[in-house]
Write a structure and sequence with these properties.
Layout: H1 14-46, H2 52-78, H3 84-112, H4 118-134, H5 136-139, H6 143-162, H7 170-261, H8 265-295, E1 304-307, H9 308-325, E2 329-333, E3 338-341, H10 343-359, E4 365-373, E5 376-383, H11 411-414, H12 420-430, E6 435-440, E7 444-452, E8 479-483, H13 487-499, E9 503-507, H14 510-517, E10 527-531, H15 540-550, E11 558-562, H16 570-576, E12 579-582, H17 587-599
Parallel strand pairs: 2-4, 8-9, 8-10, 10-11, 11-12
Antiparallel strand pairs: 1-3, 4-5, 5-7, 6-7
């Protein structure tokens, strides 16, 4: 017995109007059922008391309006995708139908009042008033429509009761209905105010939600742009590093070839200076690229058992000549332990710490130690160097910060960008640990890092501490294949290897390698030395696979040279059985690696 009218007011937006009209159509079936039940109650109560034509005429009007509203609903079902203009036009006819329904219920009081006992009249009043009350919820926000509707229903009722002089207390009853009229108007005003506030709050919530979605979309777009910028920055640094390493790599090779041919002491000293400069520049490029890759999440942490004996052996092999040159003692303690950490990151941390320790130590030595602490291992790098002032300690892990000393620093101590310890701190954070430092000016410094203790897998056999490269290397009678697309680097390698006595065949692309392999003059080499990045989207791996496929019975040793740092090729190195060198490769490192690879055969 509930009437449904559009909840539309002048203050509502067109979008809100349309949404409400659609909601009204959804409620139409329940409304029509209530309307039919109200008419059925009137029919049952007054059927024996009223003449047939009067009751039939009223029921016909009720049925006609009921059918018209049903047609409205069916039309909406057929055209549920109607546009806003069509729905707003339908609303006008909908209002007319509902107001006519109000007039029909007001007419019912005039037709059936005074018939039967008091309970029939009370039933009629309850049905009519319940019909008015049920419309409050839907018409509360449209006072003019509600006032017209309730007036059509209750005004005839009040007048009819007041004019029934044959009924005792008819005026009092009319007054009661009038009071109910006023109470209903007050109810709709209060409810309308509360509902208006709720609608306003909902509209504000929807507005804030839309704003939040917009801001979230903007933030997401900004995040994607920042990630793209970070990737672009990383790619730029990687490309720039690779391109700048190429001439440095060639410079070192040509310098070493020059030293092989000239025996003048001054020229040899100049060559040494060139190699030192190349080494310093390599360190700068490495630091810049490393800090960029860490910041952009390009470093993956893969913990594994790390034998400290092998790690310390690599550190000794790398830093012992540098320490010896400065007259320092480089010592290692506790190499029997096994750590559980990312092998590459842990080695990079210790390399940076040992490099700093040697750089800032002029007398005494450097000690790398490991000892258990609970279920973890405490790794420390001690030095007897110049120390760090208390004022500088809080900032030594900041980017581009270099601690000031009370005495002038030597040139070899001033080189660098101040990124080494910043890289150490970030790599340690990636592994879930931190680096601490203690220092006394003039007495030395100790850096400490804790990592979990691990167990070495049974399948891992202990290796020798290192392979010492000979002071002099002869490749007499050896045949090497070089694959390098950079002409200067390729020519430098050929000159240097030939100076060491090797027979060298050089190629610049994988296609040229394939053409040579197809020729009758192709002979199995002793060693492959290839660049990782080659033209036409190919890599040195393609060259390795092709050459080894030509002589499948011989496992040819290989060295791959790359300009990228901080890993990325380790899995390929294991799969394709090669050793990796990072550009620019100093001749001494290349010589040691060639001796090592040829000694494995």
């Amino acid at each position: 017995m509930s009437a449904t009218l559009p909840m539309a007011g002048p203050e509502r937006s067109a979008g809100g109007e349309v949404d409400h009209i659609r909601a009204l159509y959804v409620q139409t079936p329940a409304t029509l059922i209530g309307y039919a039940l109200g008419a059925l109650v009137v029919l049952l109560v007054f059927w024996p008391l009223v003449d047939t034509w009067r009751l039939a005429g009223w029921l016909a009007a009720v049925a006609l309006l009921w059918a018209l509203r049903l047609l409205h609903y069916l039309r909406y079902r057929r055209e549920s995708g109607a546009d806003a203009a069509t729905l707003l036009a339908w609303r006008r006819s909908w209002r007319v139908l509902v107001l006519l329904q109000g007039a029909v219920w007001g007419l019912a009081v005039w037709l059936f009042w005074g018939l039967g006992a008091p309970y029939q009249r009370l039933t009629l009043i309850l049905v009519v008033y319940s019909y008015c009350v049920s419309s409050v919820q839907l018409l509360a926000t449209q006072r003019h429509v509600f006032l017209a509707f309730i007036s059509l229903v209750l005004a005839p009722t009040i007048v009819r009761i007041a004019t029934d002089s044959g009924e005792p207390g008819h005026l009092q009853l009319a007054l009661v209905v009038a009071i109910l009229f006023g109470a209903t108007l007050l109810m709709v005003r209060t409810y309308g105010h509360a509902l208006g506030q709720a609608i306003s709050l909902k509209a504000r919530t929807d507005e804030l939600a839309a704003q939040l979605r917009f801001e979230k979309a903007e933030a997401e777009a900004a995040r994607r742009a920042a990630e793209a910028a970070s990737r672009a920055k990383t790619q730029f640094f990687a490309a720039a590093s690779h391109d700048l390493r190429q001439p440095l790599h060639a410079m070192g090779l040509f310098a070493e070839a020059l030293r092989q041919r000239v025996h003048d002491a001054e020229v040899a000293s100049l060559v040494n200076s060139i190699n030192e400069s190349v080494d310093a520049l390599e360190g700068l490029f490495g630091e810049l690229l490393d800090i960029t890759r860490i910041d952009t999440g390009g470093v993956e942490v893969v913990p594994a058992p790390v034998r400290l004996r092998e790690l310390f052996g690599r550190l000794r092999l790398h830093f012992e000549p540098i320490a010896f040159e400065k007259g320092l003692m480089l010592s290692f303690r506790g190499d029997a332990h096994v750590a559980h950490a990312d092998p590459l990151l842990l080695e990079r941390i210790l390399r940076n710490l040992v490099s700093n320790a040697i750089r800032y130590t002029d007398d005494g030595g450097v000690l790398v130690s490991c000892r258990p602490r609970g279920g973890r291992l405490l790794l420390q790098v001690w030095d007897s160097g110049i120390g760090i002032s208390e004022a500088s300690l809080p900032r030594i892990f900041d980017e581009f910060f270099q601690a000031q000393s009370q005495r002038p620093l030597e040139p070899h101590q001033r080189k660098g960008l101040g990124l080494g310890l910043a890289i150490v701190k970030r790599l340690a954070a990636l592994m879930g640990t931190s680096v601490t430092v203690r220092s006394r000016v003039g007495h030395g410094t100790v850096f400490s890092i804790e990592v979990p203790a691990g167990k070495a897998p049974r399948s891992v056999e202990a290796r020798a501490d290192g392979v010492k490269a000979p002071l002099g290397l002869t490749l007499q009678g050896r045949s090497l294949i070089v694959v390098e697309d950079e002409q200067a680097v390729r020519e430098g390698l050929v000159v240097l290897l030939q100076a060491w006595g090797a027979s060298v065949i050089a190629f610049d692309t994988v296609d040229s390698v394939l053409a040579w392999l197809a020729s009758a003059s192709a002979a199995a080499p002793d060693l492959l030395l290839v660049d990782y990045r080659l033209p036409q989207g190919k890599t040195g791996i393609d060259a390795l696979v092709a050459i080894r496929a030509r002589w499948p019975q011989t496992r040819l040793p290989a060295i791959v040279v790359t300009g990228s740092t901080l890993g990325g090729h380790e899995d390929e190195a294991v799969t394709h059985d090669y050793h990796l060198l990072i550009k620019p490769v100093l001749p001494n490192k290349l010589r040691a690696m060639i001796a090592f690879k040829l000694g494995m055969r």
